[in-house]
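Deliverable D5.2: sample structural annotation.
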Amino acid sequence: MEYKELSNLYIDLSEDILKNIKFDKSSKDNQNQLIFFSCIENSLDCEATHIHKTINNDIESIQELNFEYKWRKLTQIEVIKNIIKNILFEDGLISTISDSKKRIFLTTDTNIISSNKSNDLKKFTLILSKYKSFNELIRKTLDEC
């Protein structure tokens, strides 16, 4: 199976898992949330590997890096640099994923006046939507080049 197909498969899996998440703080629900993020991260990883193999420029191998550092290396490619930086790194998708993962096991502190913003369906749907839009944009950009 090619990396592009694997990336699509992980997106499909994350959509299926999202349907089963109830945000009730149960251990099963927490596991589903972690699996959702794992699928998104695996999709990002496969997409980065696909782009690296497709463009095949002078960037050293990224195979052994995690998904975030693969994308950081891909910012060296002039054609897609701005797309990657704007969507993934500057308070973008990767920081949102990281923040949401931390909140899965965070307990709400009742002693503070402001509330801890917890994960919800809207946030997870937004993450998936952002990623799909990014994925489509990056693929269209590469197809045109």
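Annotation notes: Helices lie at 3-20, 27-55, 67-74, 81-89, 93-103, 121-144. The chain is about 70% helix and 0% strand.
The annotation will be released with the project's public dataset once the embargo ends.
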